[in-house]
Amino acid sequence: MNxxxxxxxxxxxxxxxxxxxxxxxxxxxxxxxxxxxxxSFQPPLxxxxxxxxxxxxxxVKNAQSFVLNFLGKEQKDTAQKxxxxxxxxxxxxxxxxxxxxxxxxxxxFRKMAGxxxxxxxxxxxxxxxxxxxxxxxxxxxxxxxxxxxLSSTGWQYGG
Length: 159
Hints:
- The protein contains three helices and twelve strands.
- By secondary structure, it is of the alpha+beta class.
- It has helices spanning 3-11, 55-63, 76-81, and strands at residues 18-24, 27-33, 36-40, 45-51, 65-70, 88-89, 92-93, 96-97, 99-100, 107-108, 114-126, 129-141.
- It is globular.
- A seven-stranded antiparallel beta sheet has the order 2-1-5-11-12-4-3. It has a three-stranded antiparallel beta sheet with strand order 6-7-8, with no helix packed on it. It has a two-stranded antiparallel sheet with strand order 9-10.
- The two termini are 13 Å apart.
């Protein structure tokens, strides 16, 4: 295989950036993710791909649900905060205030472009990442314009 061509082409797949939050068994996860897509109209499904050796994957597996917070197009600095594991401090994670989501009781960030509350309905556990298929149970628009595109940040994830 032409490794250079593969890497370049896979990095051309467009992705937005999100902060996925979840909580289970006294543990909270809040991580920037980029491999997300809509998968069905009825029922409304999304897929999110999570690295299998991550804290976030462990929490989502236990919770079987999550909130997908959509980053605004000017929130690169916020996205960068959630590349590493952060502990909850009161109603803050990484210096960002959060509320508890209405249905699933996970952290949600109001100062973003919006959020989806999602219940896991299946997973595909192949390779170094797991594909999580989830049904959208709730959606709300936020206070900033989105999305933040990975291509606009100068960062790369893929290839």
